[in-house]
Write a structure and sequence with these properties.
Layout lengths: L11 E4 L3 H12 L4 E4 L7 H5 L3 E2 L3 H4 L2 E4 L4 H7 L12 E4 L5 H12 L4 E4 L2 E2 L2 H6 L3 E5 L2 H6 L1 H6 L4 E5 L3 H29 L4 H9 L6 H5 L1 H6 L8 H18 L4 H15 L27
Parallel strand pairs: 1-2, 1-4, 2-3, 4-5, 5-6, 8-9
Antiparallel strand pairs: 7-8
Length: 299
């Protein structure tokens, strides 16, 4: 497989092959990159290996640029942070995970001591949107490294915002997830309210889409909520993790977030019903309907 950028930058690594990491790896393969993958459980690499990626036991050693997609800051620190003291100089790590800004700044300082650069580059959008190239990448970090990765941003869909120094994108991702999550929760509550008033939720969704209340969540999650199809695009439990980060960051900034606090309580109810492994559209089931049916990732 041809290597991007005239072959001068070598292969690109992808670390973490969950829903999002696999989608990212697929986009890079489609764009012609030589992709080397690593995951804590090797069997997760199968789909990308079948498409032409190769396995690596040393992503930072073999790849000048490494894209990271892991569950949380603890996982990023354990998997990548532990390898940074041994990384060759000049490496660029592109972390697409949703983590606390403080975690990003700590890791950025660690790789800088090795002559490398850490770019926080969380993706706003589901794995399905990433596969389709319609998600948005938010990037924080060094201007030169940001420009040097223009080919990566283009492969991931081209909707990219560079928002400032290290930690800026991690912070902005929390802002987007706050608004996104509240939009999704509001849609779930509205559809449940319509049902309680005797209005068919499918008809209610059609009206909402054609009204000033319309939102992208109606396009991406509305049919799933109405039909009870909670096949995983982004897990509900993962959004709960993100909301915890949001509340911790707001507490540190001295700001009360009453709507997000209420949202966390609703997510806790959904988790208590065993919905955490389902798609985040399953939040509607916290209102009692519709019942989930045969979704991938169900507990």
């Amino acid at each position: 497989m041809a290597e991007r950028a005239g072959g001068t930058r070598g292969p690109i690594g992808v670390v973490g092959l969950g829903l999002m990491g696999t989608a990212i790896g697929g986009r890079l393969l489609d764009a012609g990159f030589a992709v080397r993958v690593w995951n804590r459980t090797r069997e997760r690499a199968g789909p990308l290996l079948d498409r032409g990626a190769t396995w690596t036991d040393d992503p930072l050693g073999e790849c000048p640029r490494v894209v990271v997609s892991l569950y949380d800051g603890a996982a990023v620190t354990a998997v990548i942070g532990a390898r940074l003291p041994h990384a060759p100089p000049g490496r660029i790590v592109i972390d697409t995970s949703t983590v606390a800004p403080e975690t990003t700044r700590t890791l950025a300082a660690a790789i800088a001591s090795r002559g490398g650069v850490w770019l926080d580059a969380p993706i706003s959008g589901s794995s399905a949107q990433t596969r389709a190239g319609t998600a948005t990448v938010i990037v924080g970090g060094d201007d030169v490294a940001w420009a040097a990765c223009a080919d990566v941003w283009a492969a991931l869909g081209g909707r990219v915002h560079h928002v400032g120094p290290s930690g800026s994108a991690a912070a902005m991702k929390l802002v987007t997830n706050l608004v996104l999550g509240l939009n999704r929760a509001a849609l779930a509550e509205g559809l449940a309210f319509a049902r309680s008033l005797g209005i068919d939720p499918a008809r209610a969704l059609a009206v909402l889409r054609d009204s000033p209340a319309a939102s992208r969540q109606m396009d991406t999650k509305g049919e799933k909520m109405v039909g009870g199809d909670f096949t995983v695009q982004a897990r509900l439990a993962q959004h709960d993790k993100d909301v915890a980060l949001i509340l911790a960051a707001s507490a540190g900034a001295g700001l009360d977030l009453p709507l997000t606090t209420a949202h966390r309580a609703l997510l806790a109810r959904a988790l208590g019903l065993g919905l955490g492994a389902l798609d985040n559209s399953a939040i509607i089931a916290a209102y009692g309907a519709p019942p989930p049916r045969g979704a991938e990732g169900a507990p």
